[in-house]
From TrEMBL:
An example Gene Ontology CC term for this record: plasma membrane
SUPFAM superfamilies: Cupredoxins, Cytochrome c, Cytochrome c oxidase subunit II-like, transmembrane region
Co-factor requirement: Cu cation
The entry's keywords: Copper, Electron transport, Heme, Iron, Membrane, Metal-binding, Respiratory chain, Translocase, Transmembrane, Transmembrane helix, Transport
Membrane topology, as annotated: Multi-pass membrane protein
Transmembrane segments: 45-69, 90-115
Organism, as annotated: Gracilibacillus dipsosauri
GO biological process: ATP synthesis coupled electron transport
Note describing how the cofactor binds: Binds a copper A center.
Cytochrome c domain location: 249-341
Protein name (database record): Cytochrome c oxidase subunit 2
Residues annotated as domain Cytochrome oxidase subunit II transmembrane region profile: 23-121
Name of the gene encoding the protein in the UniProt record: coxB
Catalytic activity field: 4 Fe(II)-[cytochrome c] + O2 + 8 H(+)(in) = 4 Fe(III)-[cytochrome c] + 2 H2O + 4 H(+)(out)
GO molecular function: copper ion binding; cytochrome-c oxidase activity; heme binding; oxidoreductase activity
């Protein structure tokens, strides 16, 4: 009895944990609350597939219960053998035809949506962004606008934006569940997809292909704003001045330290860089994609990136092998980076 009570308590605790954890998550990081055209179409396919599976499950369970009740062993009929239906052409046709029809019900809308989301007929007339996946961060290049940025992707609401994706190392997968399905990001061949947000807001993205130690920490976000705000953001980013002198003395010292130790990998303007572009670092909501956007977290990241995000490229930074960056220097660099805010077009939820 005690053994059964222990199992019941364990099951009850597990069920409670499942119930509580099912409510955990982040806004705009779910495919079940679509807010973009691609996600909406995918959601329809999910609903159709789920309904088909529910119908199949119910029919199978009904037949299962019926067979158990009808052909159960009865008193006085222990040796009775029910009528055998082996080799019945009618039954074989039925249970072959029904699965084919069910698969067609799922396959037709799935194929239609797949081709629809792969449509590139409007690519030349739309915004095109080159996306590069690296361990463990994302880089975005607005080729026509001549803008380089990392981690945060700004798009206008209600407009198709085409993403041309390549990897700089291993295979990644670009996924913003609230806006669209995922797409592999390969090192050898370029894949293209489009996203379209129906409403303004911040949509969180993930790498959906295991790519190394910090795969689960390879986060990014898409910020959808109005067309006017997007145009203003583009103008602000095009006019970024990396030579601008910070107001505070501490930030000025941090700028000098940054140029001495960090500028070999990072960029503060619209030029390519080995590491993430930091021109609008002050406008971001996360440090390294996963840490709270505070000076304390940034200092901790500069001093010990391995502890925050194992396997990341910062571990090869030259300054980490020298005695040039201590806590005092890291705080000055953090002061400088936190004031890099070239644009005021940042939704409150993105801050």
């Amino acid at each position: 009895m005690k053994e059964w009570m222990g199992k019941i308590r364990t099951l009850s605790l597990f069920s409670l944990m499942v119930l509580v954890l099912s409510a955990c998550g982040k806004d705009n990081l779910t495919a079940l609350m679509p807010k973009g055209y691609g996600a909406e179409e995918s959601f329809k396919v999910i609903i159709i597939s789920t309904l088909v599976m529910i119908v199949v499950f119910l029919i199978v369970m009904i037949i299962y219960v019926y067979v158990i009740m009808k052909f159960r062993q009865k008193k006085g009929e222990e040796n009775k053998i029910p009528k055998q239906v082996e080799g019945s052409k009618t039954l074989e046709i039925v249970w072959t035809t029904i699965p084919i029809l069910l698969l067609l019900i799922i396959a037709v809308p799935t194929i239609a949506v797949t081709y629809d989301l792969a449509d590139e007929s409007k690519k030349e007339d739309s915004i095109n962004i080159n996306v590069t996946g690296s361990q463990f961060w994302w880089h975005f290049e607005y080729a026509e606008e001549q803008i380089q940025t990392s981690q945060d992707l700004y798009i206008p609401v209600g407009e198709k934006v085409y993403l041309n994706m390549l990897s700089s190392d291993v295979i990644h997968s670009f996924w913003v569940p609230a806006l669209s399905g995922k797409m592999d990001v390969n090192p050898d061949n370029e894949n293209t997809m489009y996203i379209e947000a129906n409403e303004e807001g911040v949509y969180w993205g993930k790498c959906a292909e295991f790519c190394g130690d910090s795969h689960s920490l390879m986060d990014f976000k898409i910020v959808a704003v109005s067309q006017d705000e997007y145009d203003q953001w583009v103008e602000d980013m095009q006019n970024v001045d990396p030579e601008a002198t910070p107001e505070s003395t501490t930030a000025q010292e941090g700028k000098a330290l940054f140029e001495q130790s960090c500028l070999s990998c990072h960029a503060l303007d619209n030029t390519p860089s080995v590491g993430p572009n930091l021109s609008n670092f002050g406008d971001r909501s996360m440090v390294a994609g996963v840490l709270e956007h505070t000076k304390e977290e940034l200092v901790g990241w500069i001093l010990d990136p391995a502890e925050k995000k194992p396997g990341n490229g910062m571990l090869e930074a030259p300054y980490l092998n020298e005695d040039t960056i201590g806590e005092e220097e890291a705080e000055k660099i953090a002061d400088y980076l936190m004031q890099l805010k070239p644009s005021e077009i940042t939704p409150e939820s993105a801050k």
